[in-house]
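To: structure subgroup
Subject: Chain for Friday's discussion

All,

I'm putting the inputs and outputs inline so they're searchable in the archive.
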Amino acid sequence: MPEAATPIEEVAGIDPAALPEALLRRDQPCVLRGLTTHWPSSRAGAASASEAIAYLQRFASAAPAMVTLAPPECGGRIFYRDDMLGLGFRHERASLAALLDRLQRPGDGTTLYMGSVAVDACLPGFRADNDLGFGELQPLASAWVGNRTRIPTHQDLPDNIACVVAGHRRVTLFPPQQLPNLYVGPLELTPAGQPVSLVDPASPDLARFPRYAEAMCHARVAELAPGDAVLIPSMWWHHMEALDDFNVLVNYWWRQSPAWMDTPMNALMAAILSVRDLPPAQREIWRGVFDHYVFDAGADTAAHIPEAARGMLGDIDQRLARELRARLLQRLNR
């Protein structure tokens, strides 16, 4: 990443006990310096890795969870094999308590990473003194624990506040519109569920990925210490690099959409199956259909239909969402 990359905007004066709605609805990322410096876990993380581990061990569950292990030659990058027909890491089951013990011992260069584990499951009781105030919003709180890791550039559907508890993180963000310049890999086989950029930000191969030079012009970067946080809005591409031998992140995910809504990835996959390979003229017709019923839909779209007869063109609730999902499954399975 070029040294002149744009810093992520910093926002100050946020009350961690009552996050304002304007922050939670932002569509631009921001760094929240010192947001969680009052957390006992962040204070321990700022002191040393050993103090952070000792603090977390007070809560660490003995229940098994998924741990990712990658060989030393991967350099901490959780990625594909060279042939891209498989993944360059493996999984094993271990408790967070066991992982914390292992991370205290001298390592052999193996990447160790426990990602996206529910905080209340792996650290029961932790949130009593280490939490943020979201009001009526009930986000999913997850923990990420490991050594030096590099998570490939990807995007997530939910909005996200990621809080550094221990270690330092370098966060590199790209706007959603940079998709064509990020050279995203397969949609089916992915390192962790989301498609990822094939470009390594640490050493981008611009001969193989020339459009990435344009993406770098739009990159926003920040380095975070214990107590710092970053807001990553929905669908912003982000590369997360853990810079120390022991790192902990706690993040909160939420969506600004009704609970009945499915992931738009389902629609993308269905469109690839049923629209992408149509003759060009027909594909353009369907572009207009999608604009009319989806992207440009408004009060006038179905105003000519009696309200009680609008079906999926009207307001959708849980009941109608279930009926529509059943109809889709029936059509796909015919």
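Points worth raising on Friday:
The chain has nine helices and 13 strands.
The mean pLDDT is 96.

D.
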